């Protein structure tokens, strides 16, 4: 989990503050967005300088390189956290399905999705657009912009 950048495995937050899977997923997906936003802000603030010195240009490139590295490293962790939201186990004898990642959370009772879960599913769907679809799309666009420079001919 250290390689997967899962903060909840490194620091046992549940021992200090009781959480459920919804909140852990939110922290797992929002924290990289904040850090990435800071890195992009630093990148563009250096880029908007009228006279870029050599050292400033190097810092500007390093901020964007850090952003790309962060996006590459967090993609598997965030994607799997988001996709776990949609997996539920149904117990037909009680007519209830529970979330596999956290059995304290109810997915459906008698076929009806819980109100709290509906909101979190919308959040997870938005995060699906950002992480499993958005990050690979971002890399594809960045590579396409540089495809002539990357060609071997």
Written description of the protein model:
It is a single chain. It contains six helices and four strands, in the order ααααββββαα. A four-stranded antiparallel sheet has the order 1-2-3-4. The protein has 153 residues and is α+β, with helices and mostly antiparallel strands. The N and C termini lie far apart (42 Å).
What characteristics describe this protein?
4 strands; 153 residues; 6 helices; 66% helix; alpha+beta; 12% strand
Characterize the main sheet: 4 strands, antiparallel
The unreliable regions are: none
Estimated share of beta-strand residues: 5-15%
Number of helices: 6
Topology of helices and strands:
Layout: H1 7-10, H2 13-16, H3 21-47, H4 54-84, E1 88-91, E2 96-99, E3 102-109, E4 112-113, H5 115-145, H6 147-150
Antiparallel strand pairs: 1-2, 2-3, 3-4
Brief overview:
Helix content is 66%, strand content 12%. The chain is an alpha+beta fold and 153 residues long. Strands 1-2-3-4 form a four-stranded antiparallel beta sheet.
């Amino acid at each position: 989990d250290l390689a997967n950048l899962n903060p909840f495995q490194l620091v046992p937050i549940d021992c200090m503050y009781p959480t459920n899977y919804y909140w852990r997923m939110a922290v797992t997906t929002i924290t990289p967005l904040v850090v990435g936003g800071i890195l992009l802000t630093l990148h563009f603030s250096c880029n908007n300088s009228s006279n870029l010195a050599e050292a400033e240009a190097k810092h500007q490139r390093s901020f964007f390189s850090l952003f790309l590295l962060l996006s590459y490293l967090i993609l598997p962790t965030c994607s799997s956290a988001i996709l776990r939201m949609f997996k539920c186990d149904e117990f037909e004898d009680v007519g209830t399905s529970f979330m596999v990642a956290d059995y304290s959370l109810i997915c459906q009772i008698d076929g009806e999705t819980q109100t709290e879960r509906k909101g979190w599913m919308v959040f997870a769907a938005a995060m699906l657009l950002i992480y499993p679809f958005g990050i690979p799309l971002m890399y594809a666009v960045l590579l396409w912009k540089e495809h002539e420079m990357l060609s071997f001919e």
